[in-house]
Amino acid sequence: MRLVLAALLLFALPTAAAAQSNPAEQTMMQTVQSEHDRHIALLERMVNQNSGSLNLPGVRAVGDMVRTELEPLGFEVSWVDMAETGRAGHLIARHPGSGRNVLLIGHLDTVFEADNPFQRFERTGSRATGPGVGDDKGGVVVIIAALRAMQAAGTLQDANITIVLTGDEERIGAPVAIARQDLIAAGREAAFALEFENLAVEDENDFGTIARRSSANWTLTTTGRTGHSSGVFNDNLGYGAIYEMARILDGFRRELPEPNLTYNVGVIGGGTPAAIDAEGFSVTASGKTNIVASTAVARGDLRTLTAEQDARIRAGMQAIVDAHLPRTDAELVFGESGYPPMAPTEGNRALLARLNAVNRDLGLPEMAEYDPARRGAADSGFVAADVDTLGGLGVAGGNAHADGEWVDLDSLVRQSQRAAVLISRLSLGQP
Which ranges carry the Peptidase M20 dimerisation domain (predicted)? Predict the structure, then answer.
């Protein structure tokens, strides 16, 4: 019966796969396909366990599910507690081998907390919906499916692999230096890094992610002299906090634009008085039309493609802030939490070329570079300065971070096949 199944699966492979991939790689292809239902069931169990970033027991429970999958494959699995950052922790797994170290990156948490009504996995044909089904539980299942295929083919035995699955990717703990110290250390030890966030797909074409923009938060507070509105603009009262705020934000809009840069304003308020809450989400303000505003507060984000661009734009923002209207002041503060950019490098492009060699040999479509302005930030940004990195190796889907998040379950097959062969070749030094 097993021989018949293997023959049928081999027959189902693309002609290019049978012609150009070696027997071990054909076994990987067949194993992923034959275990497809198993991995869908695993994905369902993971999705049905809520693991919002602030649901610490839920994040740990998903980590336990992954541990159960990895330990039988020969991985040494540990849990790094992150109580000091206010988060559950991270799962780190190591498979020592003689090959070059390949770091696999994903995350256990989702944006959907326990009180969100969107909680269950549902399947209709090859489409499944559920909280975190793509971001990033689908990516974690791709990792597991690829490793199981490698074990079946014998390529896992000598592979040198480290897995870091963070428990707070969607809402990173503080301080960041502690929250990401283990991931950064793993990146410095690795020869290659592969990140398993959602696959980029447009017009039914798969794309490779060689770059991601950063994500940083900033808070702008402006102040001015307050008094009767009849004196606004005069030498005594000046322009007030709201006009100073408007000047600065419009200066950002007019003076800073360039490719791969955005700086959104998410919340704003001004009056006498005005204040923002400790979480930076809610602004309260009150005032009267005949009183010059004393305070204004705005909070937004900054996204850049390279460290150089990030430093230059921050300096440009500060220069605009410093050109005060009469009798006003302003302070721009960048938050400590945030994600550094994953800049496009020749090393990253070389990794995509290696993936496209896999695609050619397996009879899968080649993947062009995806526009980084269309991608969000990810944990890969924390390692990209130290190691060649390729992102977006998870499943294809849509509506991430929203009710109705969905994935194409068929993509789980091709992504796991791609990953199994790529990881094997990278670690074992094959072309």
Answer: 210-328
8-state DSSP, 261: -
Residue 105 has pLDDT above 80, yes or no: yes
Q: Are 342 and 391 in contact (CB under 8 A)?
A: yes
CB 63 within 8 A of CB 79: yes
Q: How many residues does the chain have?
A: 431
Domain covering 215-339, topology: Alpha-Beta Plaits (3.30.70)
- SS3 for 143? helix
Among candidate residues 215, 164, 94, the one with its CA nearest the CA of residue 389: 164
Q: Look at residue 280 in the predicted model and tell me its pLDDT.
A: 84
CB atoms within 10 A of CB 101: 21
User: Is 248 within 8 Å of 324 (Cβ atoms)?
Assistant: no
Which of 152, 86, 186, 42 has its CA nearest to residue 195? 186
Phi and psi of 382, rounded to 5°?
Answer: -75, -15
In terms of DSSP bridges, do strands 89-95 and 283-285 run parallel, antiparallel, or are they unpaired?
A: unpaired
Alpha-carbon dihedral sign for residues 382, 387, 390, 395: negative
DSSP state of 164: E
Chain-centroid distance, C-alpha 69: 23
Residue type, 304: T
Q: Which neighbouring-strand residues pair with 220? A: 298, 332
- Provide the 8-state DSSP code for 52: B
- Residue 204 makes CB contacts below 8 A (sequence gap 6+) with none
Model confidence at 20, in pLDDT bands (50, 70, 90)? low
Structure tokens at 102: 């390949």
Cis peptide bond prior to 310, omega within 30° of 0: no
Tokens read off for 125: 């044909």
CATH superfamily of 2-212+342-428: Zn peptidases (3.40.630.10)
SS3 content of the chain, % helix, strand, coil (to 5): 40, 25, 35
In whole angstroms, what is the distance from residue 229 CA to residue 239 CA?
10
- What is the mean predicted confidence (pLDDT) over 417-427? 98
Q: For 250-263, what is each residue's pLDDT tens digit?
A: 999 999 999 999 99
What are the residue boundaries of the structural domains of the chain, listed by start? 2-212+342-428, 215-339
Chain segment 329-338, per-residue pLDDT in tens: 999 999 887 8
Backbone angles phi, psi at 246, to 5 degrees: -60, -40
* Cα–Cα distances in angstroms (integers) from residue 14 to residues 11, 18, 76, in the given order: 8, 7, 36
What pLDDT score does 274 carry?
A: 94
